[in-house]
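In response to a reviewer's request, we include the raw inputs and outputs for one of the modeled complexes. The two entities were modeled together in a single run.
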Amino acid sequence: MSDSLARGIEAMRAQMDSRVMSYMSSCVHCGVCAEACLFYTETGDARYTPIYKTEPLRKLWRQEYTFWGKLAAGMGLCSKLTEADLAGWEELVYDGCTMCSRCSMVCPVGIDIAYLIRKVKEGLAAAGFSPPDLVEAGKRALEIGSPMGVTLTTLKATIRAQEKETGIEVPLDVEGADYLCLFSSGEIAGFPEFIGSLAKIFKATGVSWTISSDYFEATNTGVQLGNGKLAATLVERVVAAAEKLKVKTVISPECGHAYSTIRWDAPNFIGRPLPFKVVHIMELLDELRRDGRLKTQGVTDERLSYHDPCNAGRRGGVLDQPRKLMNMVAPNFVELPETGDMNWCCGGGGGVSSNERADELRLRVFSAKKRQLDAVNPTGLVTACSNCRHMLEDGLEDNEMHDIELLGITELIADHLVEGHG
Amino acid sequence: MFAQLVDGIFWDIALWVFVIGVLWRILSIFRVRNKPDYSVPRGSAFAGAIGANLRRFLPRAEIGYRTRLHVIAGYLFHIGLFFLLVFAAPHVLFIKEQTGLGWTAMPYWAFIISAQIAFIGLMLLWIHRVSHPVTRLISDADDHVAAILTFVVMLTGCMALIESFEGLRVLHRFTVELLMVYFPFSRLMHAFMFIPSRAFTGAWFGRRGVKA
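The model returned the following structure tokens for the whole complex.
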């Protein structure tokens, strides 16, 4: 057995808990999960069946934890997990799965298949079978602090530009602020107006906030890769930045993956509770709305719809808040069919967006989103995830759906803000 | 001689293998602990676990049409089998003899309907398994052995209704014993494991405030 295979097997063995084993023991191979997966429904390729993507883990479980498997392995009657198995599953797991969890919502016996796929990723990453782009993103995250290589200098330049545009100072390294805001690199590079929008809203609502120059990245490439060690290292940086500035709450920006990671997974990566509260920006804005601090004026005539980011909505529980916020400014709001906790993924979650070799497949499966949009014909599509927004932009462009404008919900609210209600 | 073995020692062995095997499987799964979840919950894990166990009996509307065959055939098979197992007159009599507990058996016509429903469901599921690209890809020998064994048990059960022929009753009981021995080591364990499986997922999503 090669070293890399041994590392992969050991990493997967370490994932075997009673939850994984219950799932393995309850699957009846019914194939219902395939019907919820955009990679299967849009390509018709059975290999994209979600439970099939967990086959390396299942094979190991069968050999080491089941009666027949142990018997067959002992008698040399079954093929053992090989390096070729892991190599063969790399594309299925990293290119053909966005970890959107739609399959997890429909399994008749209740298997959280995305949870299992995350465990498979641990094995593949340990064995060295991960997409080169993601591996590089991981290196940049570790060395530069951003998977896209966004530096503090870039952030400062972006902040200055936003300060100039809004006329509002963006607080950097303010000790004792109530909130520390993180950003995804994609947000800083692609949608810098998010920072300006936050500045406007927080000034109007009297929220004390800051950004840390030590660490400002919200995303966690360790999660996308399936590298728990890297994930924990990146989480510790957030913890250190928050502790240094003595903030009470950390704000996850418009990024589903970042929210799911820092809100739900982060304490488990580092093995202790976080010393601060975590809120998604939608949760905070909705709280400000409820308290009467966030007030808007005027409405948009646009026929807006909302795309639920999988990790913020289905896997994060932020489902009602964006709708309540939309309700403040968009009277012509129209829901997409199959929305909320059953929304179709943008196609770029789980690290797929950072994996260039998956681009063609990602754009092909955008047909699921196109079908949703065609059903209600919105003039604008709002979301609360910069990664989704990038992917939606790509998909709309690829399908020549130029009539649909893409918006971030924070900007939408900021554009209708009644200022001075702190 | 064979009938004596089937009604005697074979039954005892099958029963013990079944009971100890199922318990061993369940205990061996729960012996491996889950890591603690340090995140601050938004909702109740317990309510999520219960809710998921109930909700997953019905398919999500969003995929209802695409999975109509699974749902219809699955329900036909499981409902038919449940009625055969619990309310078939010979089974009611057998359970009363073994435990002293008795209840009203279903009439002959209801047995026939239950059997037909169960057979149709099982055959549809198996045809789907061998003909659909997805199920063909993900199915293994265990799936087929479990389906064939169940089919044989049901078939011999119907044949055993010709009560004047003792041999058919013995044959049915023997196939049941085979099924009971196979059960703990096979995918048939889903009959028990779906409960913790749904509970784990429901609890995980429930902590996040999502109804899974």
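As requested, we also summarize the result in words. The radius of gyration of chain B is 20 Å. Chain B touches chain A through 61 residues (CB under 8 Å).
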